[in-house]
Each structure stands twice: as structure tokens, then as C-alpha cells.
Design goal:
By secondary structure, the chain is of the alpha/beta class. It is built from ten helices and ten strands. The strands form two sheets. Strands 6-7-8-3-9-10 form a six-stranded mixed β-sheet, with helices on both faces. Strands 2-1-4-5 form a four-stranded antiparallel β-sheet, covered by helices on one side. The chain is globular. The protein binds adenosine-5'-triphosphate (ATP). Adenosine-5'-triphosphate binds next to strand 2 and helix 1.
């Protein structure tokens, strides 16, 4: 479970997030939706500790990680799939996944990872940089999963990915939720994707949450309006 209270994040004097409060329980997928520049990446970077928070508290299963470095947050169960994937282009697929395994002390890549991503097994000796965008996205998710996270953060995982592959990514996230005791938080602009994966949808606007719905109650037209203004 992730609990965030009174979170404040700034770039120098510019306050991008002033007072965010939310809780995401285990086995829930939360989608945070918003237009470009509304604060999704800033929020995720502050949760993983790349950006320091200027105030507030972040807890994982009751443990306060607010003052932890990124690597300590990973040790405490936060995993991050950044926007743009950021895989290592010159390492092989296998080596890319192995970079996530130091934390979990795994000796070899578990079978369940390759079962989720068969294409990565096939391509395990290829350089990460030679994979397609969709395959790189799978690789970034696999690298995050081998840390055995309690909370998996994915920043705009569908960005630059073709529609048929977007469906595959949605299926993979749903499979992960089924197989693991995990909290998934995904930032997105593609409503069809969030409707396929999220239990709850929140809209962020200028660093504030302005709308929240359980997936079954979502008024798609209203959300589309928020995303297009
Ligand atoms: N390094 C930075 N220095 C100053 N301001 C920044 C910096 N990075 C982002 N911002 C500002 O913070 C605000 C939120 O940006 P952020 O990248 O979090 O938005 P986003 O919702 O993730 O957008 P996108 O979908 O384009 O990634 C924007 O106004 C942006 O200009």
C-alpha cells in the first residue's frame, strides 16, 4: 500500500505540486491522467526519490520512505518504469533485466518473468537499443519487476507505442496484478488504455487532483474533456 500525504514538490522557486494526498491499496491499479505538463512525471520522480520533495510524507506499507534515497526506496518496494523507458541500449536484454536484480538478490532471471514476456526470452542476447519501442517497454517493466516491488510506477507506458502493442501492455499489467500482491500506479493520456487496466482513475491538473472515479463509474466524455482542454 502507498500512502502519500501533503506532498509538495518544487523546481527551485516554482511549486509544481503543492499538497497532494492519496492512498493506493494493494491489488489496485490507479491511473493518473492529465495533459502534458500537468505534473505526472514530477509526481512519479518525487515518489521514487529522483526529485526531492519539499514537504509531506510518503509511506510504503506503513514505512516512511520520505527521506530515503532512490535505491533505498527500491529496497523498500518501489519500482519505477520511467517515461521514455530508459533501458540501457548497449546492454543485452538479459543484462538490462539483471541490473534490477541486485536489490532482490536473485541469481538468475526467474521463469515467471520470461513467461510474462516471451519476446524477451527470445531476444535475451540482443542489445536493448535494437528492440522496438514496445519491446523496450516490456524490458523496462521486466527490469522493474525483478526488484519484487510492492508498488510499481509506470510513467506514460503507451507513449510512442502502436495501438496493437498498447493492448499487449494492458494485458501484461493485468496479468501482473493477478499474479502478484502489488499496487500499480500508471500515468497516462490514453483513456482506452486506462479503462483496460485501472480500477480507479484520477485526473491531475496543474499539480492538483481535480477528478476521481472508480473505473466502472467513469464518464468517458468528461475525462476526455479534461484531457483535451
Ligand atoms: N526540470 C524542471 N525545471 C523546472 N520546471 C520543470 C522541470 N520539469 C518540469 N517542470 C515543470 O513542471 C510542470 C509539470 O511537468 P511534468 O513533466 O511533471 O508534467 P507531465 O504531466 O509529466 O507532462 P508530460 O506528459 O509532458 O510528461 C510543468 O509546468 C513543467 O514545465
Amino acid at each position: 500500500m502507498l500512502e502519500v500525504s501533503n506532498l509538495k514538490v518544487c523546481y527551485g522557486q516554482s511549486e509544481v505540486i503543492s499538497d497532494l494526498n492519496f492512498t493506493v491499496p494493494k491489488n489496485e491499479t490507479l491511473a493518473i491522467m492529465g495533459r502534458n505538463g500537468m505534473g505526472k512525471t514530477t509526481l512519479f520522480k518525487s515518489l521514487i526519490g529522483i526529485l526531492p520533495s519539499a514537504g509531506g510524507e510518503i509511506k510504503i506499507d506503513g514505512i516512511d520512505i520520505t527521506n530515503c534515497e532512490s535505491y533505498q526506496r527500491v529496497e523498500n518496494g518501489v519500482a519505477y518504469v520511467p517515461q521514455g523507458r530508459m533501458i540501457f541500449p548497449n546492454l543485452t536484454v538479459q543484462e538490462n533485466i539483471e541490473t534490477g536484480m541486485e536489490v532482490s538478490k536473485l541469481k538468475q532471471i526467474p521463469d515467471d518473468i520470461y513467461a510474462l514476456f516471451p519476446v524477451l526470452r527470445e531476444m535475451r542476447h540482443r542489445k536493448g537499443g535494437n528492440l522496438s519501442g514496445g519491446q523496450q517497454q516490456q524490458l523496462a517493466i521486466a527490469r522493474a519487476l525483478v526488484t519484487n516491488p510492492k508498488v510499481l510506477l509506470l510513467d506514460e507506458p503507451t507513449e510512442g507505442i502502436q495501438p496493437s502493442i498498447i493492448k499487449d501492455i494492458a494485458n501484461i499489467l493485468n496479468e501482473i496484478k493477478k499474479l502478484r500482491d502489488i499496487t500499480i500506479i500508471v500515468s497516462e493520456q490514453v483513456l482506452s488504455f486506462t479503462m483496460a487496466v485501472a480500477d480507479r482513475i484520477i485526473v491531475i491538473d496543474k499539480g492538483e487532483f481535480i477528478h476521481e472515479d472508480m473505473r466502472d463509474n467513469v464518464n468517458s466524455e468528461q475525462i476526455k474533456k479534461y484531457l483535451s482542454v
